[in-house]
Amino acid sequence: MRFSEQLIKTTKEIPSGEQSRNAELLIRGGFIDKTMAGVYTLLPMGLKVLNHIVRIIREEMESLGAEEIFMPALQPKELWDATGRWDTMDVLYRVHSPDGSHEFGLGPTHEEVVTPLVKKFILSYRDLPRAVFQIQTKFRFEARAKSGILRGREFMMKDLYSFHATETDLLAYYERAAAAYFRVYERLGLTALKVRASGGAFSDFSHEFQVIADCGEDLIYHCDACEFAENKEIATCVEGAPCPTCAAGTIRVSKAVEVGNIFPLYNKFSDAFNFAIKNQDGTDQKVLMGCYGIGCTRLMGTIAEVLSDENGLVWPQQIAPYQIHLIQLGADDTVAEAAKDIYEKLQSKGVAVLFDDRTDVKAGEKFADADLIGIPRRVVVSTKTIQAASVELKYRATGETSLIPVQQFLDEPYV
Ligand SMILES: [Zn+2]
């Protein structure tokens, strides 16, 4: 993509009203645009990043044997009445039809839709287990929407629901789902902790996946030697105390961003929708459920916060909007031709390239934009590099810079 033709406008200005670093960097770098508090448009580069994140999540959910569906965001009040959550859920947007005849909820989560849906397909214990997931827009009224895309009022989320005949099967799947979550975070370049948390109205416990970061709204108590970690709300230990599960560690307290949560729901929702199956011995038994969420846009915001530096964003290669940020320095014909030639050759190889072909922008500004946008490799074509029959390659993450012969550069597998 040519910079001059893309819907992108970088800026040095800190956007007014934005207090969060993720929104500041993503708006300045041309990834998102703010529509109103907590609601953002994903611009072309932002959507590319989100799509890469979604692809990784989808692959890991499919590895759990889950099937992808797409449920409606617009949900009838009657389903929410069935679980009692119409009156109790404070984040639920409640809307009327224009003629005033019906009320609807805008889905903040989908248990009310997925439970009666899957019930239609499950007749006996032989039909279980089953798991479905979706990647969809969610709506939640957040009283305080000041954390950019870490806490939006409209956002993209992956939610997975599993259905089981026995508790053993539910808990085994729960562990497999947790392992898949760790694979997602690892592939995204994040280090997450699995943190024990309250089970709310559903069960004795749940788990959150937390990334330690100063921007985090949660406090976690975690061991510095083993995997023990608890959310502040249920913490049973204090800072500096010895770890209750291993002899060697000490409890630390850290701010963290929640990047996923998993709940064993047991029969909370199958009770509400009378979702039961015939057991082997002919008796009726309630189906047991689990639910598993990852905020996709929140992950993008977390990566923007955690993997950035004072100059801008630093995207991991797996989710970067482009693999190469090609910069043409100077407007003379030789440089323009050489840069265009490299751009076209990379494109023909299927490499995703952002080609800064602007001729009315100074070198310093192009370099600052490259640092702000955070594509893994910056490649400069200038009179100097042409004289050396080379290009200048700089890695965004390490700052490592070198001159590489043009052909050698083109032969690398930058996909
Ligand atoms: Zn420990």
Task: Offer a concise description of the structure.
The chain is of the alpha+beta class and 415 residues long. It has helices spanning 21-28, 44-62, 77-83, 111-119, 167-187, 268-272, 296-306, 333-348, 363-373, 383-387, 406-411, and strands at 32-36, 39-42, 67-68, 74-76, 93-96, 103-106, 130-139, 154-164, 193-197, 206-212, 218-223, 229-231, 251-266, 276-278, 284-286, 288-295, 308-309, 312-313, 324-328, 353-356, 377-381, 390-395, 401-405.
How do the strands and helices of this protein lay out in sequence?
Layout: H1 21-28, E1 32-36, E2 39-42, H2 44-62, E3 67-68, E4 74-76, H3 77-83, E5 93-96, E6 103-106, H4 111-119, E7 130-139, E8 154-164, H5 167-187, E9 193-197, E10 206-212, E11 218-223, E12 229-231, E13 251-266, H6 268-272, E14 276-278, E15 284-286, E16 288-295, H7 296-306, E17 308-309, E18 312-313, E19 324-328, H8 333-348, E20 353-356, H9 363-373, E21 377-381, H10 383-387, E22 390-395, E23 401-405, H11 406-411
Parallel strand pairs: 3-7, 19-20, 19-21
Antiparallel strand pairs: 1-2, 4-6, 5-6, 7-8, 8-16, 9-10, 10-13, 11-12, 11-13, 13-16, 14-15, 17-18, 21-22, 22-23
Helix pairs in contact: 1-7, 2-5, 2-7
